[in-house]
Design a protein that fits this description.
mainly beta; six-stranded antiparallel beta sheet; six-stranded mixed beta sheet; 3 helices; 48 strands; 4% helix; 49% strand; globular
């Protein structure tokens, strides 16, 4: 990011970015624009020495294996490219080096470069590409073609994570100017949805017993995407390196109303409000809220049927269905309630049971040093001497504002009400069945946790053992540093596929998949991790795989020689 760049440049100015003159080798080359081929001047090129096992054995490095960066000047250095995009490091000792380049408004392509070994000669023909970042600019107009000023516009990047589609906000919302114009910049290559979302849905907190209720009417509009009213019907904007995309959105201005009420059973944490239509937060106006009395007022709500949700950190939640029809809604009462406990029982057959086979909950969405997790989730783990399983509860899009679940070492899963996807992973064991009451979660892994209801326990049955697959991806003219991924699709549709992905510097793409249920599998190879392997339609359309049979307690071998189609 630009902030990181400024920090690195300041560090260089303070330290002089000098590399101790330890050897006789030269590492040089050029940085170019991946789109135009033109040189990139004043790009910061960093060389970091990798202390390998080989260096440690032959005594050429005093440090243990690892990568050393700033703070260890003998193992790192940085220079700026000149007007022709050229850079040059001199006086390097023999060893292995990683090179990277960065400059504001550029990014490095996702393909990982192969480390450079300086041993018998210098290398002066290194070619580094930087991709220019993209922009999206557009205009918000009303039904008469007039510009809408002060509108909040959100860019959402769509990507695949964990085998399924995810939608994540990019940067901060933009506000249209007096011409109705907005602009997003520094966008990484990818697919984006653009959404006009009223005038923002921020919550304003007051420490007084009352809040400043507003008078008069408003004109607002329902959230509208480029190309359609919902995310499913929206048209994605494709950003390639240097793309300057256009996204004009027409909205329907209409009278908007206020929703007023009071939250009861308040705690000490901050409250976040959401106005849900189906699985999507469609709140388009500010919320005034008193932390003392719980009185709130939500502005700019257009006609429609909604679920009003208030969430107090990870401690409590309140939900209430509301209907807005040509008038303000007042006098609402919402009572905050704590999380719901879901009994979870994990049984591993074929070995001695430990601790009554009760699961413990672990946070499944850690983000050290960052904002609170974007989705609700937890991991239930059962430590055992031989085989064990973990079950993850991951929140749906509707729960994007819910925090992580809570739980104790020997207690049930504790989560806020919402919709969750249950998935199970085992080590030294394989899943036989997952059920919640009469619902087969292997067939349909989604559960709905209702407010105030006592949910049925989640019963997970696995068997100790399982088979393994040892494989290698050997694609013709494969090169070191390229990403290769393997997908094992079981012949039984109720079992989840197993996915492996890695970038190997040596060019050898070997993988090992373990704890698989006995049976038939089809193995596919890919050049990207953006694989929607949880989508049955995607799996049915695959071709170019290799068949393999897995026996309990045995390791099958397979070689994949082509990428999937």
């Amino acid at each position: 990011s630009s902030d990181q760049m400024r920090g690195v440049w300041l560090l260089l100015l303070l330290t002089g970015c000098c590399w101790a003159q330890q050897g006789e080798y030269v590492l040089a080359g050029s940085v170019v624009n991946s789109r135009t081929g033109e040189p990139v001047k004043r790009a910061l090129v960093t060389a970091m020495r990798i202390v390998t096992q080989r260096d440690a054995r032959d005594g050429s490095a005093a440090r243990p294996p690892g990568v050393y960066t700033f703070g260890s000047s003998a193992n790192s250095a940085a220079v700026f490219t000149d007007v022709s995009g050229a850079f040059r490091f001199t006086g390097l000792a023999s060893g292995t080096y990683n090179l990277s380049a960065q400059k504001p408004h550029f990014t490095e392509p996702p393909t990982e470069r192969v480390p450079i070994r300086l041993e018998s000669s210098s290398k002066e023909d290194v070619h580094i590409e930087l991709s220019p970042l993209g922009t999206i600019e557009g205009k918000i107009t009303d039904q008469r073609g007039q510009p809408v000023s002060g509108a909040s516009v959100i860019a959402l990047q769509t990507h695949i994570e964990g085998g399924g589609h995810q939608i994540s906000p990019v940067d901060v919302p933009r506000t249209t100017d007096d011409r109705g114009v907005f602009r997003f910049w520094n966008l990484e290559p990818g697919h984006y949805l653009v959404k006009a979302a009223g005038h923002g849905d921020a919550t304003f907190f007051y420490r007084d017993e009352t809040i400043p209720f507003t008078n008069g009417g408003f004109l607002s509009f329902a959230p509208t995407y480029l190309g359609g009213p919902t995310a499913d019907s929206a048209t994605a904007v494709v950003i390639e390196p240097g793309t300057e995309a256009r996204a004009d959105i027409a909205v329907m201005l209409q009278p908007a109303h206020k929703v007023r009420g009071r939250l009861e059973n308040l705690g000490a944490e901050y409250v976040v409000f959401a106005l849900l239509s189906g699985d999507e937060d469609v709140g388009t106006g500010r919320v005034n809220y008193s932390r003392v009395t719980g009185v709130f007022e939500m502005l700019e709500v257009v006609n429609g049927s909604y679920t009003l949700r208030a969430t107090e950190a990870n401690a409590a939640i309140a939900e209430l269905p509301i209907v807005v029809r040509d008038a303000d809604v007042s006098g609402l009462r919402m009572t905050l309630a704590g999380p719901v406990e879901i009994p979870v029982r994990i049984h591993v057959l074929g070995q001695a049971e430990v601790n009554e086979n009760r699961g413990s909950l672990e946070d499944g969405s850690a983000n050290p040093g960052g904002p609170p997790p974007a989705i609700a989730g937890g991991h239930l783990s059962q430590p055992q001497s031989l085989g064990f399983c973990t079950a993850a509860l991951d929140g749906a899009e509707a729960n994007s504002r819910l925090p992580s679940g809570l739980g104790g070492a020997d207690g049930p899963a504790t989560v806020l009400p919402g919709r969750y996807r249950v998935s199970v992973t085992c080590v030294n064991a394989y899943v036989i069945s997952v059920a919640m009451g009469s619902t087969d979660l292997l067939t349909n892994p989604w559960i709905t946790v209702a407010l105030g209801a006592a949910p049925a326990p989640i019963e997970i049955v696995a068997r100790h053992g399982g088979g393994n697959i040892m494989g290698e991806i050997k694609v013709e003219q494969d090169a070191p540093g390229k990403t290769r991924c393997a997908l094992a699709v079981p012949g039984v549709s109720t079992l989840e596929p197993t996915f492996w992905c890695e970038s190997m510097h040596s060019g050898e793409h070997k993988f090992f998949l373990e704890s698989l249920a006995p049976g038939d599998y089809t193995l596919y190879a890919f050049s990207t991790d953006q694989i929607e392997y949880r989508n049955p339609e995607f799996l049915r359309g695959l071709s170019g795989g290799e068949s393999v049979h897995v026996d309990d307690g045995a390791t099958a071998t397979v070689t994949i020689t082509r990428l999937a189609r």
